[in-house]
Amino acid sequence: MRAIRFDTYGGPEVLTLVDTAVPEPGPGEVSIDVTYAGVNFAEVMFRRGQFEPGTPHVPGLEVTGTVRALGEGVTTLRPGQRVAALTLAGGGYAEVAVARERLTVALDGELDAIPAPVAAAFPCNLPVSWAILHEVARVREGESVLVLAGAGGVGSGAAQIARHLGAGRVFGAVGSAAKLGPATRFGYDEVLTYEELERRIPELTDGQGVDVLLDSVGGPVRARALDLLAPLGRHVVYGNASQQDHTYEANLMWYTAKTVAGYNIGGLANRRPDLVHGHLVECARLLASGAVRIETTELALEDVAKAHEILERRDSTGKFVLRVS
Ligand SMILES: NC(=O)c1ccc[n+]([C@@H]2O[C@H](COP(=O)([O-])OP(=O)(O)OC[C@H]3O[C@@H](n4cnc5c(N)ncnc54)[C@H](OP(=O)(O)O)[C@@H]3O)[C@@H](O)[C@H]2O)c1
């Protein structure tokens, strides 16, 4: 089968189209004939060796397609069934991928309405957006939310899910003026550049700050995140795209009555796949009902390096998906 693989860590040029063996599902797993695969910033981090998946590695955290074969003990899926899945350990940039039964969602009934490129685009991003708002920040009716990297895959979904959950004002922050317009399409009340946050967030919140700050970026905004939060506000850390973290003293949470929280879908999927499966189904329903939409840009499987280059340059908005077969 055709797959994209890297044999050493490095720049986008290490992503190589190869002919490789078809993977077989193990116990509790299914193999999937992949039609589309999503592209995630996490895969850029794997490729660079920031997280080391081991080499050779076929990247790809999410796919859609049809079930090809069932591993031992699989009872809830059948061959030929249309599905979307979190592959998590990688393997998505390929004609056949393997996923755990519990991280695979059947796209039947109302979920059959989800088009294939969108079905490939949601299994990683939207459940993260859902979990950080609903489970971690526990956003309440009328609360204000600020989303960093607001035009990106997770960010664009978070803006819409925050609204769906009853948030009041929803603000986005982006890394360049060029993304202000595109980000507005995801329903923000206001989109700001990072440099404007310190001045504009107090103005926009009667001097209080936001109730929830979603931070996958780190860097200077993370270092001043508590100043941007209202009393009892929650700063949710779920990524570090800038590669600049910040250290807090725990006592500061006590003094300020503010919370720093975190989320990791891989960690949760390993310990509580049932919870992640619930988030996947919830998000698939939001897509099928039209409550949330994803803006996808399609590329051929062999052009994946282009998507990685654009993601690394910070020029992407919405989500790249790869046409596989
Ligand atoms: N914890 C989890 O379970 C989990 C799961 C999935 C994703 N994530 C994280 O969520 C974030 C969003 O993922 P995504 O796949 O949807 O990506 P994305 O948001 O579409 O792309 C990454 C964005 O990060 C921002 N960024 C800030 N500093 C950057 C830098 N130095 N280099 C590159 N980008 C930078 C850029 O937006 P601006 O230019 O607008 O800042 C860029 O567009 C990533 O950081 C990812 O690691 C976490």
Summarize the structure.
The protein has 325 residues and is an alpha/beta fold. Helices cover 30% and strands 25% of the residues. The longest helix has 17 residues, at 273-289.
What is the assigned CATH homologous superfamily of the largest domain? Answer: Medium-chain alcohol dehydrogenases, catalytic domain
Content of β-strand: 15-25%
The CATH class name of the largest domain reads Alpha Beta
Helix share, percent = 25-40%
Topology, number of strands: 15
Secondary-structure class:
alpha/beta
What is the gyration radius calculated from CA atoms? 19 Å
Q: What is the helix tally? A: 12
Shape: globular
- Number of separate structural domains: 2
CATH level 3 topology of the largest domain: Quinone Oxidoreductase, Chain A, domain 1
Span between N and C termini? 11 Å
Q: Spell out the helices and strands N to C.
A: EEEHEEEEHHEHEHEHEHHEHEHHEHE
Query: Could you tell me which ligands this complex binds, including any ions or cofactors?
Result: NADP nicotinamide-adenine-dinucleotide phosphate
Account of the 3D structure:
This protein is of the alpha/beta class. It folds into 2 domains: 2-122 and 294-323, Medium-chain alcohol dehydrogenases, catalytic domain (Quinone Oxidoreductase, Chain A, domain 1, Alpha-Beta Complex); 125-265, 3-Layer(aba) Sandwich (Rossmann fold). Helix content is 30%, strand content 25%. The chain has helices spanning 41-48, 116-121, 125-136, 153-164, 180-184, 197-204, 219-223, 225-228, 251-256, 265-271, 273-289, 304-312, and strands spanning 2-5, 16-19, 29-38, 62-70, 82-86, 96-100, 104-106, 145-147, 170-174, 190-193, 210-215, 229-237, 259-262, 296-300, 319-323. Strands 3, 4, 5, 6, 7, 14 and 15 form a 7-stranded mixed β-sheet that branches. The protein has a 6-stranded parallel β-sheet with strand order 10-9-8-11-12-13, with helices on both faces. Strand 14 (296-300), helix 12 and strand 15 form a beta-alpha-beta unit. 49% of the residues are buried. The mean pLDDT is 97. NADP nicotinamide-adenine-dinucleotide phosphate (NAP) binds at residues 40-42, 124-125, 128, 149, 151-155, 174-176, 179, 216-217, 238-239, 241-242, 263-265, 311-312, 314, 316.
